[in-house]
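## tool: complex_structure
## caller: assistant
## args:
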Amino acid sequence: NPDARDAYTVLDVELRKVFKVFKVDTAVRGVDLDIRQGEFFSILGPSGCGKTTTLRLIAGFEMPTAGEVLIQGKPMTNVPPYRRPVNTVFQSYALFNHLSVWENIAFGLRIKRLPRAAIAERVKEALKLVKMEALANRFPAQLSGGQQQRVALARALVNRPAVLLLDEPLGALDLKLRKEMQVELTNLHRDLGLTFIMVTHDQEEALSLSDRISVMHDGKIEQIGTPSEIYERPQTAFVADFIGDTNLLKGRILSLNGSEIEVLTESKMKVVAQRLDSSTAWHPQASVAISVRPENIQLNLEPSCLQGNCFEGRLQHVMYLGTHVHCVVELKSGDRITVKQPNTFASLPDPHTPVYAYWGSKDSLVLADS
Ligand code: ATP
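## result:
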């Protein structure tokens, strides 16, 4: 019962109709967010969509033009960053190069004039959390990117914040190190039980780390959900396209029959699709987009489809990728689609080979055209 769960869920961070207008740009346009205590929450979106501004509004580095930010139930309107129970890890790490690892981590506590013994104890604890005890006396220039990232994390954690804000925390690392640090971030989140709010433009990173993801587009939240909800049940064409590859076909609704919808594409194909979002009142003639994931399309050399969608076309490219083949097909309608399937061909067909593309109605989702 989701209502019962919500009644007991403690919210750590709330945004209420928040806007942020800079001189020429409106970076955030009426964002509402409920971030639960202890969850790993990601804000995902393309460059310039307003992710960082949203995080900075939570941190208190920016003030909303309208709307309100609450942390642990308290309005933050007149609370400066250093008085908020949050700490930020920046993509650039922002370490002090002239201070040792130990001093970098102790810095904030010295400013707060904590007793010497308390500082020592907390720094030791933070170093242990990020497995950097052995390198406490090094300087940032003597550390690898991953180690610098750990120091930046320790420096934020030493203040014992309720909420950790992470701005593209792994953006500066190479792919292998990035994967390793993803695992460490997940472990840290699990061990500490803190609320993590991470900004990223990396879909895979958001999918693999988060309890919930909010997808931002042009200053607004397009959808909030668990990774599988976002991937399998996107609500808009933008979300479907941004999270993983998809084939988008634009068109208009011809007829509705229960959860099945027949759509006439702009290229005059009749596609049978399924609606996911029962709250949207779809009606004939409405403009929609159909999303079909490349892995849900099957190519055959013979016309062998009984029901669902089957369209004739010609192969344009075939790429062998070990576990699967990646194909581009030009359909008779003129639409180009990509297909990713296990290599079921006896031998790889040549480009220009006629093929039949098949997918079931439940594999084509009707989405709001955004
Ligand atoms: P990126 O992934 O590239 O960092 P983002 O999604 O984090 O992008 P923001 O940095 O929040 O996006 O920026 C959103 C919009 O607001 C952009 O158009 C940006 O140019 C504008 N903007 C951000 N900060 C300022 C500022 N201090 N002054 C003026 N405009 C700003």
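## assistant note: The chain has two domains: 9-237, 243-368. Residues 175-192 form the longest helix (18 residues). Handing back to user.
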